[in-house]
């Protein structure tokens, strides 16, 4: 799907990464030692334990009157050297800068609503006689408090000393299994003092990441009357430590399997929900418009195990959205007849399923996540191609576990569906009996062939209808074809069309009306509907897309 790079991200790319010899010359940049090494004007700063980006501490400073709550420290630097200054911030109009560089002093800032963490980054070069530079952050007059964490100044060691780096944590002791049921076990262990989180391994495969100081977790999606081996490792900024001694647990009874999900309506509207903040409206699942019948949670995360996926809710980036509330919101949507599925792909979720082992890993990990969170299916949004043989194996394996209520959607790019010989098209045809819908992305695309052999450019009714015709005449049932478009111009790099264009394309395909120069030889009244990236960009634009396209989809014959 579409990924938007913010100005901060572009700055970070331009700055590049620190060289091997570079060190962080800032002290107490994570504020784990309160305000040690920091000075804040007028007593405006304080060390807080929440919200934090990482670790257990952060800086919170509150502008007051003519005081913009400037917090600074002096770092020791090397002359004629370049340093990268960066930090994570929450708040509106938060500044980051450096003075006394001996060359050009620098600063950068972030506007906006202040929701979620944002990265600020800039670089400065020291003069020939500069050995100390003052680095700072501050808010703005009349604005509420801002929060800063993970402050760093990377560059050559100026000889002023650095914070001692963490060491890799040791292996957790005391691993034990309890709370046995037909499809779940509870694993606990002794906490490791230097750990920031834990990895849980099931039969040698990493299946869970545990954060927030917890030293236990419930493993779900297991098979009844089956023994499993578990290990736990601790990790921190220095890396992952050794695994614990293995411990075995056995499930009991008969596995009732996951409860059936709601049926997808004949004509459905699909929307991708962002598990991150990129400038679109931050939403909880409960905030998603009732126009959407399928909500695709974006995205699953890849793991170090080939094919396996996991999911990590971005609670900090989503304004403190908790896992318990997330699960409850999914259950409420399901009770309202909506399908909430997990999308595989995107920035962090690129996986490779190229053999039977990775296919099984995908099926097993996806089933476990469905059990844990209540997802009713998965979406395949792998934009770098796929192996149709083994992706088919994975999806059929998952279907055998879940049953007929499993929702499977796909979101290929236009190039992926030009021919039935492409990997995506082959996969869709291979699983036609269990496939819900293919919502091709009619955006971020070059010109493509229509089913009539003519070339069409994105941004028109003809582009939508002539390319959809390839799928409709290439073997997919009309109920398995949807039109995927951005909800607003901000949702994609190119290819946005107004809701009117989408609605005209739906009319053309389903009714034979409102067509452009291309008119299909027959109508497809069973057409499934439409999809958008994303519900968040839709909300940002006042829900104009869903309020227009939703009723059109639901009113198709």
UniProtKB/TrEMBL annotation:
<keyword id="KW-0624">Polysaccharide degradation</keyword>
<dbReference type="InterPro" id="IPR036116">
    <property type="entry name" value="FN3_sf"/>
</dbReference>
<dbReference type="InterPro" id="IPR050542">
    <property type="entry name" value="Glycosyl_Hydrlase18_Chitinase"/>
</dbReference>
<protein>
    <submittedName>
        <fullName>Glycoside hydrolase family 18 protein</fullName>
    </submittedName>
</protein>
<feature type="region of interest" description="Disordered">
    <location>
        <begin position="239"/>
        <end position="261"/>
    </location>
</feature>
<feature type="domain" description="Fibronectin type-III">
    <location>
        <begin position="168"/>
        <end position="257"/>
    </location>
</feature>
<keyword id="KW-0326">Glycosidase</keyword>
<feature type="compositionally biased region" description="Low complexity">
    <location>
        <begin position="246"/>
        <end position="255"/>
    </location>
</feature>
<dbReference type="GO" id="GO:0016787">
    <property type="term" value="F:hydrolase activity"/>
</dbReference>
<dbReference type="InterPro" id="IPR017853">
    <property type="entry name" value="GH"/>
</dbReference>
<keyword id="KW-0732">Signal</keyword>
<keyword id="KW-0119">Carbohydrate metabolism</keyword>
<dbReference type="Pfam" id="PF00041">
    <property type="entry name" value="fn3"/>
</dbReference>
<dbReference type="InterPro" id="IPR008979">
    <property type="entry name" value="Galactose-bd-like_sf"/>
</dbReference>
<dbReference type="InterPro" id="IPR003305">
    <property type="entry name" value="CenC_carb-bd"/>
</dbReference>
<keyword id="KW-0378">Hydrolase</keyword>
<dbReference type="InterPro" id="IPR001223">
    <property type="entry name" value="Glyco_hydro18_cat"/>
</dbReference>
<dbReference type="InterPro" id="IPR003961">
    <property type="entry name" value="FN3_dom"/>
</dbReference>
<feature type="domain" description="GH18">
    <location>
        <begin position="267"/>
        <end position="557"/>
    </location>
</feature>
<dbReference type="Pfam" id="PF00704">
    <property type="entry name" value="Glyco_hydro_18"/>
</dbReference>
<dbReference type="InterPro" id="IPR011583">
    <property type="entry name" value="Chitinase_II/V-like_cat"/>
</dbReference>
<dbReference type="Pfam" id="PF02018">
    <property type="entry name" value="CBM_4_9"/>
</dbReference>
<feature type="signal peptide">
    <location>
        <begin position="1"/>
        <end position="20"/>
    </location>
</feature>
<dbReference type="InterPro" id="IPR013783">
    <property type="entry name" value="Ig-like_fold"/>
</dbReference>
């Amino acid at each position: 799907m579409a990924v938007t790079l913010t100005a901060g991200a572009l700055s970070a790319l331009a700055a590049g990464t620190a060289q091997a010899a570079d060190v962080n010359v800032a002290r107490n940049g994570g504020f784990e030692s309160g305000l040690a090494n920091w000075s804040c004007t007028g007593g405006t700063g304080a060390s807080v334990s929440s919200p934090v980006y990482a670790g257990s501490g952060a800086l919170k400073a509150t502008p007051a009157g003519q005081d913009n709550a400037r917090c600074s420290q002096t770092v020791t630097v090397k002359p004629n050297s370049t340093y990268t200054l960066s930090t994570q911030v929450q708040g509106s109009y938060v500044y980051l800068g450096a003075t006394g560089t001996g060359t050009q002093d620098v600063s950068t800032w972030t506007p906006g609503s202040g929701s979620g963490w944002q990265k600020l980054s800039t670089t400065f070069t020291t003069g020939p006689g500069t050995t100390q530079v003052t680095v700072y952050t501050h808010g703005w007059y009349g604005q509420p408090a801002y929060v800063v964490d993970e402050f760093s100044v990377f560059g050559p060691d100026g000889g002023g000393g650095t914070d001692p780096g963490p060491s890799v944590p040791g292996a957790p002791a005391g691993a034990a299994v309890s709370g046995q049921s037909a499809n779940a076990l509870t694993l606990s262990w002794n906490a490791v003092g230097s750990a920031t989180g834990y990895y849980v391994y099931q039969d040698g495969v990493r299946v869970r990441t545990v954060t927030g100081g917890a030293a236990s977790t419930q493993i779900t999606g297991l098979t009844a009357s089956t023994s499993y081996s578990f290990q736990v490792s601790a990790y921190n900024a220095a890396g992952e430590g050794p695994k614990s001694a293995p411990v075995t647990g056995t499930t009991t009874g008969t596995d009732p399997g996951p409860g059936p999900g709601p049926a997808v309506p004949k004509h459905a509207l699909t929307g991708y929900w962002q598990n991150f903040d990129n400038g679109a409206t931050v939403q909880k699942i409960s905030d998603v418009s009732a126009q959407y019948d399928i909500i695709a949670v974006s995205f699953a995360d890849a793991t170090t195990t080939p094919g396996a996926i996991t999911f990590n809710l971005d609670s900090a980036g989503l304004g403190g959205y908790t896992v318990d509330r997330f699960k409850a919101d999914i259950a409420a949507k399901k009770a309202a007849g909506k399908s909430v599925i997990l999308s595989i792909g995107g920035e962090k979720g690129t996986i490779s399923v190229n053999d039977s082992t990775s296919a099984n890993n995908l099926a097993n990990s996806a089933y476990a996540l469905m059990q844990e969170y209540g997802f009713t299916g998965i979406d395949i949004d792998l934009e770098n191609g796929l192996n149709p043989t083994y992706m088919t194996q994975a999806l059929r394996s998952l279907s055998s576990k879940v049953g007929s209520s499993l929702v499977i959607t796909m979101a290929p790019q236009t190039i992926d569906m030009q021919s039935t010989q492409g990997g995506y098209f082959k996969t869709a045809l291979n699983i036609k009996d269990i496939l819900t819908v293919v919502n091709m992305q009619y955006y971020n695309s070059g010109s493509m062939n229509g089913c009539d052999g003519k070339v069409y450019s994105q941004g028109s009714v003809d582009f939508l209808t002539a390319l959809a015709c390839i799928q409709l005449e290439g073997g997919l049932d009309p109920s398995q074809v949807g039109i995927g478009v951005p909800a607003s111009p901000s949702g994609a790099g190119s290819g946005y069309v107004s809701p009117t264009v989408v609605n005209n394309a739906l009319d053309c395909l389903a009714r034979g009306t409102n067509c452009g120069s291309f008119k299909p030889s027959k109508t497809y009244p069973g057409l499934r509907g439409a999809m958008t990236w994303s519900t968040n960009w839709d909300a940002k634009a006042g829900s104009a897309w869903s309020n227009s396209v939703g009723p059109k989809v639901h009113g198709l014959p």
